[in-house]
Design a protein that fits this description.
The chain has 249 residues and is of the alpha/beta class. It is 37% helix and 18% strand. The chain is built from nine helices and eight strands. A five-stranded parallel beta sheet has the order 4-3-2-5-6, sandwiched between helices. Strands 1-7-8 form a three-stranded mixed beta sheet. Helix 4 packs antiparallel against helix 8.
């Protein structure tokens, strides 16, 4: 099971999030760059929040259609439909109803970032959803997660939150940091608090939620062998009985 030195360092200084802490989270929104990030980065958290009876909503930013861009059998529109249904199936595994999933359908691989002409309008779209949801706590991608869309979604979230009058508590969750992170991508103790949530009781549920994203496990888009697949070595990063989150000090 993959367990790097840097992650060991984070764990050594991580503070523990307990169920009692979660009870104070109130209404929680997960902002996911792609369908599957919610399960990989926050699946245990979501399952635990729902077990505690707390309201959880998930905003999927991109349509996920570019994981297998060379598929002939599945057009981009059909790929997006598959990814959307898989996301809803994953939410169901986590005990989140379909009505609590929102899909912005921004272009996969080209989510508008701060340098994009579409950035302000895209941030406004996200802000409008947050204004309607009125979350007490938000989980967004880690600001230095080494993936273009993840960084773009962090920027969109930061911009959209300037429109929200009641500032929610904000946590950041890593996904690609464990696989692609460089030394400088990891947060310093002076900048961010590292939190550890033990999810041993929710790990099997998290596994089922990840498994609901069948296309990302190579089980749907068979005519694009070069497409993206969550390989076993990648999935190993999310097999630990804990999840790690960061909070700006």
């Amino acid at each position: 099971m993959t367990f790097g030195i840097k992650r060991m360092g984070l764990l050594s200084r991580a503070l523990r999030l307990t169920e009692r802490d979660l009870e104070h989270f109130g209404k929680t929104v997960i902002i996911a760059p792609h369908p599957d990030d919610e399960s990989l980065g926050c699946g245990g958290l979501v399952s635990m929040l729902r077990r505690l009876g707390l309201n959880v909503e998930c905003i999927f930013v991109s349509d996920g259609s570019m994981s297998h861009p060379s598929s002939v059998e599945f057009s981009a529109e059909r790929r997006a439909e598959v990814r959307r249904q898989e996301a809803l199936n994953a939410l169901a595994e986590l005990n989140v109803s379909a009505g609590h999933g929102v899909f912005l359908d921004f272009p996969d691989g080209a989510v508008p970032n701060s340098a994009s002409a579409a950035f302000e309008d895209s941030a406004k779209t996200l802000a409008n959803h947050l204004l309607q949801m009125k979350p007490d706590t938000i989980f967004i991608p880690y600001q230095h997660d080494p993936h273009r869309d993840h960084e773009a979604v962090w920027q969109l979230a930061q911009r959209s939150l300037t429109e929200v009058k009641k500032c929610p508590r904000i946590f950041e969750y890593p996904v690609w940091l464990w696989e692609l992170g460089r030394e400088e991508d990891y947060p310093s103790d002076s900048d961010m608090t590292c939190w550890r949530l033990d999810i041993g009781t929710e790990l099997e549920t998290k596994r089922k939620a990840i498994a609901a994203h069948r296309s990302q496990l190579g089980q749907v888009f068979f005519d694009d062998p070069a497409g993206f697949v969550l390989r076993p070595d990648l999935l190993a990063h999310f097999e630990h009985p804990f999840e790690i989150f960061f909070e700006t000090k």
